[in-house]
């Protein structure tokens, strides 16, 4: 399989035969990315380009090896293929999310499967993003940077929202519905916070994408619908609180 890069560049053109040193990086600890993928050519091109971006890169060729490496090295982000030998990507994702040591690692699923149901399953298992093959390299790296960008913030007056039986605590990153904890992904949590903190205000998909991910909204408009659908499923009988505004996007209900 060949990754589709910008200007139709192929993998063989992206990774030179004679390697040279990657650019210098600051003395501070580099962010660590783990690639769990059984396709050697894809691992090679991702590793080369991510190292050139200054990241530390690890890789594993099957699900079990990847799971063990994630638990040992605790990467900042995992690029996880869905179709893996042994443990598949969904099983790996489930194991990572059930382990307190790895439950907060960002997970981006890479897969040739692009059906909507596969995306929903992936998000429900705890994936933070879903990228269908073939993909362009530069937008992928942009999305990786967006996930890894975690701006520091000082506590402010509104760190907890209580509305319609839903409690969202931004400092402790928890959300509950009628006292029951919601198992939200990072993106779902950000979406719920943004909507609930401005009840009644319609948000466009572009605004929600920019707030929750910081990436190019034009390329990911459909992705926000998948996240909203998954969020509604987790809200259960409170799913109607996230309302669709036709021709615009979504809003959190203002009515009691």
In words, what does this structure look like?
The strands form 3 sheets. A 5-stranded parallel β-sheet has the order 2-1-3-4-5, sandwiched between helices. It has a 4-stranded antiparallel β-sheet with strand order 6-7-8-9, with helices on one face. A 3-stranded antiparallel β-sheet has the order 10-12-11. Strand 6 and strand 7 (166-169) form a beta hairpin. It folds into 2 domains: 6-148, Rossmann fold (3-Layer(aba) Sandwich); 160-252, Arc Repressor Mutant, subunit A. The chain is of the alpha/beta class. Residues 5-13, 16-27, 151-157 and 214-219 have low confidence and may be disordered. It has 9 helices and 12 strands.
**Main sheet properties:** 5 strands, parallel
Helix content: 25-40%
In round numbers, the mean pLDDT is 80
What is the succession of H and E elements?
HEHEHEHEHEHEEEEHEHHEE
For the biggest β-sheet, the strand order reads 2-1-3-4-5
Structural class comes to: alpha/beta
Name of the level-1 CATH class of the largest domain: Alpha Beta
Distance between the termini: 53 Å
CATH superfamily of the largest domain: Response regulator
Radius of gyration: 19 Å
How many DSSP-defined strands?
12
Observed structural traits:
single chain; 256 residues; alpha/beta; Rossmann fold; Arc Repressor Mutant, subunit A; 5-stranded parallel β-sheet; 4-stranded antiparallel β-sheet; 12 strands
Write the layout of secondary structure elements.
Elements: H1 11-14, E1 32-36, H2 40-52, E2 56-60, H3 63-73, E3 77-81, H4 89-98, E4 106-111, H5 116-124, E5 129-132, H6 137-148, E6 160-163, E7 166-169, E8 174-177, E9 180-181, H7 186-196, E10 203-204, H8 205-212, H9 221-235, E11 242-245, E12 249-252
Parallel strand pairs: 1-2, 1-3, 3-4, 4-5
Antiparallel strand pairs: 6-7, 7-8, 8-9, 10-12, 11-12
């Amino acid at each position: 399989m060949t990754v589709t890069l910008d200007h139709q560049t192929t993998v063989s053109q992206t990774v030179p035969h004679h390697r040279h040193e990657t650019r210098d990086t600051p003395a501070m600890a580099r962010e660590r990315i783990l690639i769990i993928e059984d396709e050697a050519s894809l691992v090679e091109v991702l590793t080369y380009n991510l190292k050139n971006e200054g990241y530390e890169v690890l890789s594993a060729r099957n699900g079990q090896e990847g799971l063990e490496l994630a638990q040992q090295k605790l990467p900042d982000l995992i690029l996880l293929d869905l179709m893996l030998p042994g443990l598949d990507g969904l099983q790996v994702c489930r194991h990572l999310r059930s382990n307190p040591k790895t439950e907060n690692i960002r997970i981006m699923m890479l897969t040739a499967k692009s059906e909507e149901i596969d995306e929903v399953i992936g998000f429900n298992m705890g994936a933070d993003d879903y990228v269908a093959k073939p993909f362009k390299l530069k937008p992928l790296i942009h999305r990786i940077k967006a996930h890894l960008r975690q701006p520091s913030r000082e506590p402010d007056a509104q760190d907890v929202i209580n509305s319609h039986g839903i409690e969202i605590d931004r400092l402790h990153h928890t959300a509950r519905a009628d006292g029951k904890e919601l198992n939200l992904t990072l993106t779902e949590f950000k979406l719920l916070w943004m909507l609930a903190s401005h009840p009644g205000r319609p948000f466009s998909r572009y605004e929600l994408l920019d707030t929750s991910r910081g990436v190019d909204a034009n390329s990911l408009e459909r992705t926000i619908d998948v996240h909203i659908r998954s969020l509604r499923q987790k809200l259960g009988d409170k799913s109607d609180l996230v309302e669709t505004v036709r021709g615009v996007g979504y809003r959190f209900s203002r009515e009691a």
